[in-house]
Design goal:
It is a single-pass membrane protein. GO terms for molecular function: proton-transporting ATP synthase activity, rotational mechanism; proton-transporting ATPase activity, rotational mechanism. One of its GO terms (cellular component) is proton-transporting ATP synthase complex. The protein is mainly alpha-helical and 159 residues long. It has one domain. It is built from 3 helices and no strands.
């Protein structure tokens, strides 16, 4: 009995203990459990990946909607600004037209006032000249009443 024999006996005893304790089935069972756990983790990873893709698609859709809404807001603001600018221009034109009409009215009034003033001055000068001419012609005493009546009549008709 040499060392080889005892080594062989130890090996056989080792294998007997291993089979008695059912190590191969436990190892197989552990490997199967590990494989199932790995499959489960892979499936969860796939589900998470799909969920991430769906969330990404949802966020991209929301971003596009937000961009479109922003474009609509900018377009509405531009339209509103254009409308305000158009309204302001129209108001300015109306204001200028009103001011021009008022200035023309004032000019026409000043012109008619000046014409009336010139006529009044001309009437006064004509009355004074007539009075002097009549007074010079009728230097007599009874014609004074006639002269005053004539001057009053001339003033009435010229005004």
């Amino acid at each position: 009995m040499d060392n080889t024999f005892w080594t062989f006996v130890g090996l056989i005893l080792f294998f007997a203990v291993v089979f008695y304790v059912k190590t191969p089935t436990k190892v197989g069972k552990n490997l199967d459990e590990r494989a199932a756990r790995i499959r489960k983790e892979i499936e969860e990873a796939r589900e998470l990946k799909e969920e991430a893709k769906q969330q990404l698609a949802e966020y991209q859709r929301r971003r596009r909607e937000a961009e479109e809404e922003a474009k609509d807001i900018v377009a509405a603001a531009k339209r509103e600004a254009d409308a305000m600018l158009k309204e302001t221009r129209q108001r300015n034109e109306e204001y200028v037209q009103r001011r021009t009409a008022m200035a023309e009215t004032k000019i026409a009034q000043a012109e008619s006032d000046a014409i009336a003033e010139v006529r009044a001055a001309a009437v006064d000068i004509a009355v004074a000249a007539s009075a002097k001419v009549i007074a010079d012609r009728n230097s007599g005493g009874s014609s004074g009443l006639f002269i005053d009546n004539s001057i009053a009549e001339v003033r009435k008709r010229l005004n």
